[in-house]
Amino acid sequence: MSDDDADTAPLDPTGDDARIVHISLDERTVIRRSAEVEQERAIAVYDLLEDNRFRPRDGGPGPYHLRLFIEENRLVFDVRDTADAPRTQIALHLAPFRRVVKDYFQICESYYDAIKRLTPSQIEAIDMGRRGLHNEGSQMLRDRLDGRIAIDHDTSRRLFTLLCVLHIRG
User: Fold this and answer.
1) Quick check: helix, strand or coil at residue 19?
2) By the 8 A CB rule, do 11 and 149 touch?
3) Number of Cβ within a 10 Å radius of residue 94
4) Preceding peptide of 56 cis, ω within 30°
5) 5: which DSSP letter?
6) How far, rounded to the nearest angstrom, does the alpha carbon of residue 146 sit from its chain's CA centroid?
7) CA distances from 105 to 19, 21, 72, 137 (A)
8) Distance from chain centroid for Cα 135
9) What angle do CA 85, 80, 7 make, to 5 degrees?
């Protein structure tokens, strides 16, 4: 399993085979907290499978199956081929993500609360902050994967959403 100090030569996430065709989350680490969180997870998975760019350095040709899980305070990308044979595993320390995930959860709670009681302009202001934090987290994820897995902006955003879902604990 590779760790956070891998070679950082550029990877190209293009080509028809540079994509995820199946994704699963380790259900042992996913706690169903709210309908809103479940909806965000379902949308992220659906959108990710519909359109993504994903090419692991050591994953061989795609397309890929991806299993995400948390182990020993690391987010693990378990990359497999379409026959589910292991290709590579990439682990990222979760500590650098703690602040942005915590802030993102707080602003999401404010957003869901605002939808019920605030004006559209107030909701829009909170949503802009929410999107800004989401972009910050997805760029951090992309930077941390640089040289190991090439992903595009939209794929990074959807994977950051799933990272957040995996962070939810009882």
Assistant:
1) coil
2) yes
3) 16
4) no
5) S
6) 14
7) 28, 28, 22, 12
8) 11
9) 125
For residues 168 and 30, give the distance between their C-alpha atoms in angstroms, rounded to a whole number.
7
pLDDT tens sequence for the chain (170 residues): 544 444 444 556 666 689 999 999 987 765 666 777 788 888 999 999 999 999 999 888 899 999 999 999 999 999 999 999 999 999 999 999 999 999 998 898 888 889 899 999 999 999 999 999 999 999 999 999 999 999 999 999 999 999 988 876 53
Q: What's the Rg (C-alpha) of the chain?
A: 16
| DSSP 3-state of 76 | strand
- In angstroms, rounded to a whole number, what is the distance separating the alpha carbons of residues 147 and 129? 29
Q: Please, where are the H alpha helices in the chain?
A: 35-50, 98-117, 120-145, 153-167
Structural tokens at position 104: 């993102």
Amino acid letter, residue 97: F
Name the residue type at position 166: L
Cα 107 from Cα 36, distance rounded (Å): 13
Give the distance, in angstroms, between the CA of residue 81 and the centroid of all CA atoms in the same chain.
19
- Could you tell me which residues are beta bridge partners of residue 67? 24, 78
